[in-house]
Every structure is written in structure tokens, then in C-alpha cells.
Design a protein that fits this description.
11% strand; 3 domains; alpha+beta; DUF6638; 47% helix; elongated; 12 strands; single chain; 4-stranded mixed beta sheet; 4-stranded antiparallel beta sheet
């Protein structure tokens, strides 16, 4: 199902394509079209559309019928920068979870050049990887760094470089000031570029490290990078799984909860369930509520859950004790809460591997915290709030299969929990402040 068809309710509540920048000024639309044409695409006929940090527009994607128009082959991602303010926008459509971070690093590192260039021009180009197409896991693992190939529609970048060379020539060659043609050319270029001694028009840094990430390739694949080992977590059916470099690459099945948990624990990426954070966060209570809501959905798919409150939920739990016991997750979470209150921690080695993911979270200070929480959410699909916060591709995939009644309920819960105060919610439950 296309994002356009599935997202009306999500869009109305800013749960998809939210916080984007509206482009409706004719000169900016004209610049955007110049970038599209440079990519070999048709210019948009829209008089208004929205863009994310990379310049992706859901409206333009719908118009051209291609949600990968800036992401051909889902590798070597294209970007279009119309304004420096794009740095504050989300990235809403990408095959790699670290595209957002790479764009942020590029735009923040080269802020002066982007500020100056976008006054007169549009910046566009590709985040170029070392491979043109991904056929197997080894292609992904060969990407150690990316290079931003930067162009501008009016070639202000090229003209600034030319002017810089002429300035150097004027300084170094004693008689260069007698060359009228050269001086005339410098004046022409200066009219376009301004004083390049004051306005840095050429980006200083265009090469960045390709850090840990999730990618949509092969049904969803995680890559975690440690000093001595790279770890791939995916479906074992992915092409290239366990094929090469066992001394450098560890391959874990996304279906093997025990090994995935042990990897996250051994590499210090998770917080184990301890009273120090469990008792103040409300984490177990949140998980338990998500478990019960999902059981209600499965048992009574047509029930209207709009006005459900905690008292009603408690009554439903008592009336469906057999179902609750069979599922096992709600009793487990209650038992975990009691054990933590008594001992100060949970004996995690005694817990079934899959249930361990119900009681852990990413270590907040770890660089991979968001990615780790995304991976955890793959093992706890009942918690659609966590899925939405950290794993939007997974959430939107789940949402495709929801009934209309459940979609409405999910949106209501997100509006009254996470959207109410995103930072406070993330800080309380996950210890994250950014």
C-alpha cells in the first residue's frame, strides 16, 4: 500500500510527514525544479509542497508516483537543500536510519557555505557510497564512509572555485594585475559569488563515517560496529548471511532472541532491569498496558476502545484471566515488578529470552541508543508506542495491517501519550533527553 493511501489519519494527526517545511515561494519552487531536472526528473507542477531535511517531498513523490525519486536503488541517496533551516527538519523517507545524522553532520559542519550558497542558489547532489547497488550483505559492509557530491544549479560552487584560483593567481604572479581579461572575469564572478574571502561558498568537509545503522534492504537489517567486530542482525535468508569474514563480522539471526540479547548486554548497549530506573520510569507499567491493549484487540477486534481508561482495563483483565495467563506477558511483568521491588533487580538469566526484551531499554548515554531501542521494539511489537518513537518503518508496516478501529485507537493513544510532550515522554521512559 502506498504511503498516500494509508496515511490520511496519520497525516491529520501529524503522525506521518509531520514538522515538514512548506515550500510555496515561486523562486524556491523554481530552484527545486532545477535540481529535479539535474537528476533527470520532471519538474513539479505543484504550487506548494513540503520537504524534509534531505529535500524529500511526499507531495512531489505522490505527483511523480515514485517514493524513491530521491533514493534510486535505495543507495547513494540524493538531497536538495533550499534553505539552511532544513537542518531542523526530520528525515521521513530513507532506506538507511543514519541518513538523518549524516545530513545533520554535513549541514552543521558546512553551515557557513550552505548559508551563503542558498541565498542565490539551490544545493543538490548525492550521498555517495562505495557501491552503486546492494545485492547482498557484503555490499552493505563495504560502505565505511560516504562522500557528499555537492552541486549547485547556477554553478555558484564552480564559479567560486574559479574565482578562488584567479585570486591566488593574482597574488602569486607579479604581472597578473595587468591582465584585463582576467580582472574582468574576476569582477563578473564576484558579482555572482560575492567576496569569497568573507563568504565561504565551498563546503569544507564532504566525507563522513558510515556508523551503525538499520537499513530497509533484505527485509530490514541492523549493523552495529565495535572496535574489533561488526555485528549484522537480520533474517538469515538475507543474501550473504554468514558468507564471509567470520573473524571480522558476526551474524545474528533476528529470530534468535537469546543471542541478540546476549550481544546487546555484552557490548554495553542496554540497561538491565534495576530499581534505579525501573521504579521511577513507569516502564513496566507501560509495557503491561501495551500488552493488555493488544490482547483486547485480538480477542475483540471490533470493540470501540475510544473511552477505555485504567479502571475499565483492570476490569477486563479480571474478566479474562485465562487469556491473560495463556499469553503470559502480563503476569510476567507483574512478577518482575515485585522481584525488582524486593531485590532491587531482576534475575534476567531466569527469564525466557523473548520476554527479556519487555524489561530492558537502550543505555541512554550510548551512541547507538536510538538504534538499540529500535531493535528492542522489533521483539516487542505489542508496544506500538515504542515502535512509533524508535521504529517508524516498523510502525507504519504494522499500521498497514491494522483494522480501522485499531488504527483510530492507536492514534488516540499516541496523541495522549507521546505527542503530548515528546521530550518528557522519552526522558521518563527511556532516559533520553535528545
Amino acid at each position: 500500500m502506498s504511503p498516500a493511501r494509508k496515511s490520511d489519519l496519520l497525516r491529520e494527526n501529524e503522525l506521518i510527514y509531520g514538522r515538514l517545511l512548506t515550500i510555496d515561494e515561486p523562486h524556491l519552487i523554481q530552484r527545486y525544479n532545477k535540481a529535479l531536472v539535474a537528476f533527470g526528473l520532471k519538474p513539479t507542477k505543484l504550487s506548494s509542497f513540503e520537504i524534509d531535511r534531505t529535500g524529500f517531498s511526499p507531495q512531489v513523490a505522490e505527483e511523480c508516483g515514485d517514493y524513491h525519486y530521491l533514493d534510486p536503488n535505495e543507495i547513494n541517496r540524493r538531497f536538495i537543500i533550499l534553505t539552511p533551516s532544513q537542518i531542523d527538519l526530520p528525515v521521513v523517507h530513507t532506506a538507511f536510519s543514519n541518513t538523518s545524522q549524516l545530513m545533520f553532520e554535513f549541514m552543521s559542519t558546512n553551515q557557513r557555505a550552505i548559508d551563503a550558497l542558498t541565498i542565490k542558489d539551490v544545493i543538490y547532489g548525492e550521498i555517495e557510497d562505495s557501491v552503486p547497488k546492494v545485492d547482498d550483505i557484503e555490499d552493505l559492509l563495504s560502505i565505511n564512509q560516504v562522500e557528499f557530491k555537492v552541486l549547485s544549479a547556477e554553478d555558484v560552487l564552480g564559479k567560486a572555485a574559479e574565482l578562488g584560483k584567479l585570486v591566488d593567481q593574482l597574488k602569486q604572479e607579479p604581472d597578473a594585475w595587468r591582465d584585463n581579461a582576467m580582472l574582468t572575469r574576476m569582477v563578473e564572478l564576484a558579482k555572482i559569488c560575492g567576496d569569497i574571502r568573507e563568504n565561504a561558498l565551498v563546503p569544507d568537509q564532504v566525507i563522513f563515517r558510515h556508523s551503525a545503522y538499520w537499513t530497509s534492504h533484505f527485509g530490514g537489517l541492523y549493523v552495529f560496529i565495535d572496535p574489533d567486530m561488526t555485528t549484522v542482525i537480520s533474517d538469515p535468508a538475507a543474501p550473504g548471511f554468514r558468507r564471509s569474514r567470520p573473524w571480522q563480522v558476526s551474524y545474528l539471526s533476528i529470530n534468535d532472541a537469546d543471542r541478540v540479547f546476549k550481544f546487546l548486554a555484552a557490548t554495553g548497549r542496554i540497561e538491565l532491569p534495576r530499581a534505579s530506573w525501573i521504579e521511577t520510569s513507569g516502564y513496566l507499567e507501560h509495557r503491561a498496558e501495551m500488552v493488555v491493549r493488544t490482547l483486547i484487540r485480538d480477542a475483540e477486534p471490533d470493540r470501540n476502545l475510544t473511552d477505555v481508561d485504567k479502571v475499565w482495563l483492570q476490569t477486563w483483565i479480571h474478566g479474562h484471566a485465562d487469556l491473560i495467563t495463556r499469553d503470559g506477558n502480563f503476569p510476567f511483568l507483574n512478577a518482575a515488578k515485585r522481584e525488582i521491588a524486593h531485590l532491587g533487580y531482576l534475575k534476567i538469566e531466569d527469564v525466557f529470552p523473548h520476554q527479556r526484551f519487555l524489561v530492558i531499554r537502550a543505555k541512554p548515554g550510548h551512541p547507538d541508543a536510538w538504534l538499540t531501542n529500535q531493535l528492542i521494539s522489533d521483539f516487542v511489537p505489542q508496544d506500538f508506542v515504542s515502535r512509533y518513537v524508535f521504529n517508524k518503518p516498523g510502525f507504519y508496516r504494522d499500521y498497514d495491517g491494522f483494522s480501522d478501529a485499531w488504527r483510530s485507537h492507536v492514534v488516540d493513544v499516541l496523541k495522549t501519550t507521546y505527542l503530548k510532550d515528546k521530550v518528557a515522554f522519552r526522558t521518563r521512559l527511556y532516559g533520553l533527553t535528545d
